[in-house]
Amino acid sequence: MLRGLILLSILAALVVLAPSAPAVAKGDSTTTETFRISGGDLPHPVVISRPEYLMAASAQGSWYTRDAGLSEPPVSQVRYKLDVVDAHSDAVPPYVSYQYVPGPPARVTAADGNGWAEPIPEIADLLDRYILLGSRRLLPERPTIAEALRASSDALGVKVSAGGTALAPDAALRVASLLGEATPVIFGVRGTLIGSRNLHAVKLVIRFGEMGLHVTYVPPGPIAPYCLLLNDRSVGNWEYIALLDPPGYAQWAYTIPPQFDELMAGLGFTGASEGAIIENRVVPLDQARLTSGVDHYEVWLADGPRVTVRPPDGDAEASPCPTVAACTPVEPFTGPSMDVEMWPTGIDPFPEAVQPARYVYYPHDASGSALGVLVMTQQQAYANAFGGGTEPPVYASPALDAALKAQLARLTNGSERSSRAHLAKSLGVGVPAVLLGVLAIAYVSWDAERQRRRSGAE
């Protein structure tokens, strides 16, 4: 009996738990589109610098003053091919292509492909300036903003107005030169009532000949300890991040060297504090994550430890429908359930502002489907919190279902092993104590009997 108890304790001590889950993999996404103008009298295609494209395309929220309805341009007018392309790579095919004819009025083929439309003045000015400089062979195929603005100033002259006041020629040249160092960024700031603050903003209009470029200057103080340039439409038009406390505010902007602050301060344009700033962030636009996806999953049983699961390859959604005919799981949902959280990738400049979607996973339903069921108990959110009801139960995709079933088996097996290990540990502590007690009782009984026999013999 004693030998059997000792053997049981040794076997229980050899029970081990399942290994940990693999690490999480993250991906990046970004948008770098701009215009490429070619054809006509241009000796080679010219890609418009990304900052200038953003300043023009963001001016009014639309490329078009009139969406359609303009008459066909005369055949005598030169036509150019206008492609929307990646700002950094010729290997990426054009996203969309148009035809462009300089004005007046400027014409571009309509967005729906039917007829001709009129682009907004900012875009027409930008295209006309690049066509003029390109036709004079003053631009390389992919000029930087500094190269384009320097060529524009040299060939066409530059005039600048700040807050409606014309600047002296030397100040205008300095503004155009420093503007050539503008870098598009995603800017974020946290604080209270940021959206209603006085930004001490100064509207800048930079004109090269008759062609203009528009941007708004925000001095240091109201929202950051450094200056920023904003697109005119962005002034006061913030993305509000309610998932942070205090809330976050974000928008596209441009950083510019501190010499620009010195120049503007010397012209009388200064800022001031408009309230506490908890933090501010700048992420270069070309490096920023602008779209969300699935970052990782976390799974667990009851109050057990959480396990991080890598998203299956090619599985972008938590619960896509496998087929049209099998979209609705049938209750009751059966099998050992498991809690699942799907964590979305965050969006810059506040990637931490996310709320996971939460599900209960069941490996079976009454339909006999091979796929498990995800029952949502909490919606996901990123950047902005949102309410509303949860989605109806759905089948997990095949790839995700296989990953969840594997984890469920590991966690269930690990839980059973843990229970056996706990029992074995209890036995390992309790059995020796019981054995010692039994031996002690036996010894006492044996000693008492020995004493009794000794007394009888005497």
Task: Report on this structure.
The protein folds into three domains: 31-144, no CATH class; 157-288, no CATH class; 294-408, no CATH class. Helix 1 (2-12) packs antiparallel against helix 7 (398-457) and helix 4 (145-156) runs antiparallel to helix 5 (169-179). The model is unreliable at 1-30, 419-444 and 453-458 (pLDDT under 50). A seven-stranded antiparallel sheet has the order 2-1-4-5-6-7-3. A six-stranded antiparallel sheet has the order 18-17-19-21-22-24, with helices on one face. A five-stranded antiparallel sheet has the order 9-8-11-12-13. It contains seven helices and 24 strands. The chain has helices at 2-12, 50-57, 121-135, 145-156, 169-179, 259-266, 398-457, and strands at residues 33-38, 46-47, 64-70, 80-86, 96-101, 107-109, 116-119, 159-162, 165-166, 183-190, 202-208, 211-218, 228-230, 239-241, 248-255, 279-284, 294-300, 307-309, 338-344, 354-355, 357-362, 373-378, 381-382, 394-395. It is an alpha+beta fold and 458 residues long.
